[in-house]
Amino acid sequence: MSKYFHSVRVDESKCDGRRRCMRVCPTQAIRVRNNRAVILEEKCIDCGECITACPNEAIVALTNPIGELKRFNYTVAIPSPTLYAQFGRSILPDQILAGLKKIGFDDAVDLAIICGDTSLATEYFLGDYSGPKPLIFNSCPAVVSLIQVRYPQLVDHIIPLKEPKSLAAKEVKERKSKELGLKPEDIGTFYITPCPVKMLAIQQPPSKEMCHLDGAISIADIYGPLLSALEGEDKDSYRRNLESVCILGIGWAVAGGMHRTQNMKNVVDVSGISEIITTFDDIEQGKLQNVDLVVAYACPQGCVGGSLTVENRYISYNKILRLLETLEQENIEACRDKREILERYQQKYFHRRQKYEPRPMQALDKDLGKAIRKREEKQRLYDSLSKVDCGICGAPTCLCFAEDVVMGNAQPSDCIFNVPRRFKELTAELSELLDAFGSMGMDKIEGHKPGKVEK
Amino acid sequence: MTLKELVSLLEADVLFGERHLDDEFRCVSASDLMSDVLAFGVPGVVILTGLPNTQSICTADIVEAKAVVYVRGKRPDREGILLAQERDIPILSTKFFMYKACGLLYSRSIEGVEKTSNEYADSMVNSRNFSRVFKIKGGNFSKAGSASIETKEILRELGVDPVIVRRAAIVAYEAEMNVVMYADNGEMVITVNPDAIRIRLQDQGPGIKDIDAAMQEGFSTASDEIREMGFGAGMGLPNIKKNADVFELTTTVGKGTCYKIVIYLDSRGRT
Questions:
Q1: What is the CATH number of domain A8-61?
Q2: For B19-51, how does the pLDDT look when each residue is reduced to its tens digit (9 = 90+)?
Q3: What is the ipTM of this complex?
Q4: Which sign does the torsion angle of CA A381, A382, A387, A391 carry?
Q5: Which numeric CATH code is attached to B3-125?
Q6: What is the mean pLDDT of residues B5-27?
Q7: Would you identify the CATH topology of the domain A66-346?
Q8: Mutation test of the interface with chain A: which of B157, B227, B242, B263, choosing the one with the most A Cβ atoms within 10 A?
Q9: pTM for the full model?
Q10: Which of B65, B20, B19, B22 is nearest to B40 (CA)?
Q11: Which of B158, B198, B243 is most worth mutating to test chain A (most A CB atoms within 10 A of its CB)?
């Protein structure tokens, strides 16, 4: 039984060890051993970069197939606002929700509205907050994992608010079980997800608070059936649908969109894991203390860059921006009553009580003295390596390889640059042997002319 | 080599000390003359001897030996075993003669004691150090902070308590930034051993005219340009002082400044 659940898996029958995944992995969690990719579960944060990189589709995201809907008496789709981003302003959320109902869900709820509520709650929270800054937003589970694994000291910076999709699932289950007289467990709530990491948040929530979602279905899986189920609409219904779009929540799909229409001035948006790592390094050094909130998305451009989306991330980013612009021009603010949200906020409806637990990477050794010796060995080995990070050994960088050797997970001979050296050594040994034969008078037998017969 | 490997190499019986078998030892002292063992024995040594009396165990205790191996099938008497138990020193017995036992260990590249204990102690301490040297260039803001990021990474790999990692990272960063902001060049040496993290930084630069003032929060001689970049708020030295257990600063105006910083890893640390 593995320690951590991961929603990113290698399909060994399809993997031919091409190492593309290994090179793109932002946390160096992939090794190629015996010509197959292996994911080191301790280091993996389920960001899904490897899924996009693999030319063989050998890395798969563990999501639920649409057939799983049959397990429940009643099913509700809770689509990420990123689903709307696949279509933009030509096909609006209400139409998409209607489409979802046609392809097998009994109901579909607009998650953007709850996202909007949470945006407001975040604004209120920042107003009251006086702890260490900056706070870090928790909408991206890969970012939360990254903090747990690599920045355990920043765990306390994660904003203590609940995630909208979990709130939505809870709300739906409560409402529907009352309306329909069903038990909450008979109602299946399915998140329509742009990336595998959201699956992780369902199977193994980073905080121990219960997650009310029953599964996640990938946008890519649902896109085809959904597209054919969508119906055209006339001008009137378009206008009506436009008026029901929640401007606060729709922006959650893109970096910078979550606070775009709000009164949060000192918010920084970061997207892409390598950018996030640079920024978190800075936070650890105490650099961003004047920033209120850092909203980080593991995928470039935000959730629209997720590995389970269909549309090009820049196009869908633009689609969301155009939709936001239209809503702004038309002065549409279809969100729930702000007073009601404030009231709920004051009742701590949005507050997350459980903390995220740090899960720091394993040290080289439990014993500090031994760890120091291993680190020294690693350094010595690394200094002797070519440092070209060719990846032929199966580790993404020479530094990773040095660590693997010290930890007993690789052999120095796995490094291709060591082959000529070893060859030289062997040749030297061999000629020494032949010389020794020569001095014994054996050269006459084989006709070998040793270089130095006499001592 | 661990004691367990020693046991299988010498086909030895473990008379006492099963629970220490995973311990490592580094060298061997083989002698029947306990005074020789005392003269050259070092902590962590394994004593090979044909002298199965309590004397050998007392000697082992004094030199802090890892274990005592009796050759030629010899075994200490009951009193000897009781003493070994009392002092918690593993004792083994091999049927091999001294010559063969030594030969087997020698063939596995186990060193004998040759140096005096003081020399050996020094080398032991050195081998349990991990050091990195960072060259820091004054005025190079684009690379600023990279030495402290690497320091942090190393401490994390070593499994140092995250709270201490953070303190060390802040100290290293502030010291590094002082070179970047004010000096021409600097060399920072980070040394970690099981007791402490030591940071030594020597820079070539203007030096600090008034150390007492520089130690005050908010005191800064930074230029406007540096302040515009968000640095030079006068928190650097006070921040180092706050996070270090030992902070010594020596400076020569016109020449440079030397920082000596210690953060303890054991109970002396403040966490």
A1: 3.30.70.20
A2: 899 888 878 999 988 878 877 777 889 999 998
A3: 0.72
A4: positive
A5: 3.40.1390.20
A6: 91
A7: Rossmann fold (3.40.50)
A8: B157
A9: 0.72
A10: B65
A11: B158
